[in-house]
Amino acid sequence: MATNPDPHSAMVRPVTPRTPEGCEECRKEHSPWVYLRLCLTCGHVGCCDSSPLKHARRHAGSTGHPLVQSFQPGEDWRWCFVGEAPV
C-alpha cells in the first residue's frame, strides 16, 4: 500500500538551528526540557511534548509551521503536528 506524502512537506526549508544549545523559550525562562525538536520551516529549536512547556508544539500552533525533526544526536525522524503523524 502506497502512502501519501504529508501535505505540509512543501513548507520544509533548509534551516539553521536558531539556538543549537537548547530550547529557545526554556533558555529564556530557565525551564528544563527533555528532548529538542527543530522546526523545518524557520529553524526554531523547541522542547518536546514530554517537556513541561511543550514549546515545539506551541511554536507550530502559533506560527503555522507544523513540521519538526528530532534535534537529538543520532536521530533524524520527522513529525507533523497537524497530522499527528511521522513524516
Explain what the structure shows.
- This protein has 87 residues and is of the alpha+beta class.
- The chain has a single domain, classed as Zinc/RING finger domain, C3HC4 (zinc finger) (Herpes Virus-1), CATH 3.30.40.
- 17% of the residues lie in helices and 18% in strands.
- It contains 2 helices and 5 strands, in the order αββαβββ.
- It has a 5-stranded antiparallel β-sheet.
- β3 and β4 (78-80) form a beta hairpin.
- The radius of gyration is 13 Å and the shape is globular.
Number of strands: 5
Average of the residue pLDDT scores: 94
Number of helical runs?
Answer: 2
Level-1 CATH class name: Alpha Beta
Q: Span from first to last CA?
A: 16 Å
Rg, Cα atoms, Å: 13 Å
Based on the model shown, name its key terms.
17% helix; alpha+beta; 87 residues; single chain; Herpes Virus-1
Task: Give a quick summary of the entry.
This protein is of the alpha+beta class.
Chain-wise SSE layout:
Elements: H1 24-29, E1 36-39, E2 45-47, H2 55-63, E3 67-70, E4 78-80, E5 85-86
Antiparallel strand pairs: 1-2, 1-3, 3-4, 4-5
